[in-house]
Amino acid sequence: MTGSNEFKLNQPPEDGISSVKFSPNTSQFLLVSSWDTSVRLYDVPANSMRLKYQHTGAVLDCAFYDPTHAWSGGLDHQLKMHDLNTDQENLVGTHDAPIRCVEYCPEVNVMVTGSWDQTVKLWDPRTPCNAGTFSQPEKVYTLSVSGDRLIVGTAGRRVLVWDLRNMGYVQQRRESSLKYQTRCIRAFPNKQGYVLSSIEGRVAVEYLDPSPEVQKKKYAFKCHRLKENNIEQIYPVNAISFHNIHNTFATGGSDGFVNIWDPFNKKRLCQFHRYPTSIASLAFSNDGTTLAIASSYMYEMDDTEHPEDGIFIRQVTDAETKPKSIEMKSCEVKSLCFDYELQEVKANLYFTHRLNFWKQARQTLPCSGLPDLRIGERKKTDPRNGAAGTLGKGDTITPPPSSVNCQVN
Questions:
Q1: What is the DSSP track for 48-101?
Q2: CATH number of the structural domain 6-321
Q3: 41 near 70, Cβ under 8 Å?
Q4: 41, 85, 349, 369 — which has fewest CB within 10 A?
């Protein structure tokens, strides 16, 4: 099922799709790696395959270094760089076990690989050559670049945060807040945190700042679960991709659904139609107008008959990807400070909106406007006389002042 805003790419890989990545500068070109040992470059608007090159084993990940150079690695332990203009390739180096992850960090200008050999390696793309090897506590399952920091997810539910400018020590060691195996980690474009998914239909929103105040903001939620015959079926969340402009993100699960989430207001913005099989990989284009969706069976139920693998290209809108404005219901007064010269009331308020999340904000109210406010059903009177109806600590204003502009961070 496809609509006018979505189509399926021609000439898909002949086996499972492991990764899809858009070119850094345009939504025209899409890089795709596959278990059929190939890496393919697609011209998306033309719906045609522009180029294909091979590894000697399944390719588990790929990435653009720049618009004309692709990097890839997989079960053959080899890291390759391919010139997409000349169709020439270069064997850059190897790991001692399969390469699971390939990413580029533009701020430090290094390629990063993560492997089941329990190492992360950095590569200088200009030479190209190995720029360092760094031990991890377990097999590397997923990694993501956040500015000059690297977030690594390993077996054993471990998460490590590294500074790519100084890899001499681990900046932070964490344990996943989810109880089951980590499947995917992706960093917020605003560099404040990351989203982590597990095989047990859950997603966690985490923040990099270790201060207790910021850590209070982290949360987790259930998703990609379906009720069938009154039994809840729980599916792995295989893929995450962020919208670079809005900082919202898409998740794809083995239930075949793609959801888009607003992490700030903690709500789902939309859900697309069900795709033929598991969602193995997702990629937003850099401008956020296009989402590539890899529908590819991931052998969750062993080697059974399954629908054909495919790559769907969907044009997305702000209505599907942009956070919604907050609809306030009421605000509780926490403290007041009266400025009689300026005729202002400075109130420290807590606002609640329709999702019942609380957010503290400071609001200045002119005294002249206070008689128009209601405290429950009581009419507001002069705040200086202490009479019944005076706005005070703990009172609730319904509705809140129209001038309030409160954004949940």
A1: EEEEEEE-SS-EEEEEEEETTEEEEEETT-EEEEEETTTTEEEEEEE-SS-EEE
A2: 2.130.10.10
A3: yes
A4: 85
The candidate with the shortest Cα–Cα distance to 117, out of 102, 129, 100, is 100
Instruction: Find residue 251's DSSP bridge partners.
Output: 240, 259
Helix (H) or strand (E) holding 17: strand 17-22
Q: Quickly list DSSP for 279-303.
A: EEEEEE-TTSSEEEEEE----TTSS
- CA neighbor of 196 nearest in space, from 211, 207, 185: 185
Domain residue ranges in the chain: 6-321, 328-397
The whole-number pLDDT of residue 4 equals 85
Give the tens place of pLDDT for each residue, 271-317: 999 999 999 999 999 999 999 999 999 887 766 778 899 999 999 99
Q: How does pLDDT run across 168-186, given as a tens digit for each residue?
A: 999 999 999 999 999 999 9
Residues 126, 129, 135, 137: what is their CA dihedral angle, to the nearest 10 degrees?
Answer: 70
Q: And the tokens for 316?
A: 């997305």
Mean confidence (pLDDT) of the chain: 85
Distance separating alpha carbons of residues 23 and 59, to the nearest angstrom: 18
Is the pLDDT score of 390 beyond 60?
A: no
Chain centre to alpha carbon of residue 81: 26
Reported as type and span, the H/E element at residue 318 is helix 318-321
Q: For residues 396 and 376, is the Cβ–Cβ distance under 8 A?
A: yes
